[in-house]
Amino acid sequence: MTITIISTLMLMIFYFLLLYGGVAFVQNKKFFSSAPKEVYDAVPDRKERFHGAHVIGWVIIALAFLIFLGAFILGAWNGIRNDFSFIEFFIRFLIMLYGMETFDIVFFDWVLLCHSNFFPHFYPEVKDIVRPHLFGFNWKAHIIHYIVYIPICAALAWICTLI
Question: What is the pTM of this model?
Answer without folding.
Answer: 0.87
